[in-house]
Amino acid sequence: MHDSRLGTILLEGGVIDEGGLERCLAIQALGGNTRPIGQILVEQGMLDQATLERILELQRVRCADEAAAVSVADLESGSLLAAAVANRASELVISEGRPARIRVANGWRRLTDHELGGPEVWEFVRAAMGADVLEQLAEKHFVVRTFRVDGVAGGTATAFRQFEGVAVRVTFAVDEAATPSELGVPDAVAKALEHQKGLVLCVGERGIGRAELLAGLLGLAARESSNYVIVVDDQEVPLPVDGGLVVQRRYGADEAARADALRSVVREDPDVMVIADVGSPSTFDLALRAAEGGRLVIAYLDAHNVTAALTRVLNFYPVYEVARVRSSLAAVLRCVLVRQLLPDADHTGVVPATELLLVDDAACEVVRRGALDDLRLLLRSGTGTSGHSLDQSLLDLLVRGRVRLEDVFARCEEKAWLLERTRTGVKETC
What we know:
By secondary structure, the chain is an alpha/beta fold.
């Protein structure tokens, strides 16, 4: 693990020599150690402000790595899980022959500074998933189980075989539902849920932010005390205690099991269905038909924007059925919410950016005709009646100083449009 002290970083990079560093430390001591050493270095002309900012960013990265580190003598499963949770990780990956890693703020960090051996990985799998998992891996390629370690964490663990041995990927469950405003969900989505009918399609990148988004929307959907709400998800979701009756059902690992689970749920005739994944033809068709039956269906689909999501949906069906599906979507689709997570300005957390399609008369006609490319024009019109584009949301975050330009530039679709507005200082609100 690299040393995170500023002086050490400066010496390692050859920015200053030991004599210069000692002189600046003496000046700092004369001032009562109240002034940052970086400020003194700039004042003494030993480096410029831009170089200082780059060095401070490197120091922040090293400090984050130090905070994440787990010592060799402390490799029990509970310690690894606790360290991951303490660093606000969304995922933990442990593999033979590699250091343990965690995903924090859309980036990967080392949790251990050394490679893990087979016995260490095996013990983690047994403790978190059960003593019989390794025996099952001898017959299967992977095993998926939910887990809960009291006082530490819970979630879903997937153990699998790889070339170097056994590995396990842990995704942590959401323990407390965030509010829609904390999730970056626009107010228009809450109004769409008030109808208590139709299809609300949530869209995002694979495995990033799905559970927390659905947990936040679940609270809105279950506000009516007369509602019967069923959540279909293998991962634990915090269920609201106020409002309607809310229960959770397991989804299943393959497409056939998921379709069977949804058919069973529809037969119970709930008022609201929250479905964790409709990424297959059978599951999406069941969700669509449930919405056509007068229910409110909140479903999640992996895609990166509104157009890609609806294109993927239409590609589920053979050509002769596409016209019928477009008509059904136009009738029941209330909105499509895309939510992406970007590193914040300090790269210590994440900030949500959204794209929103509100299915008003104009959008309804576009969906019915299947001219999905025209949706971009509606989202970029600036009127707000049909929603807003992801680029507009990214620009808004950039203007408010919540994200960095390089992170926004990598995500936006109209890069020339974004650069033009950052140069002129024009802000388009979402």
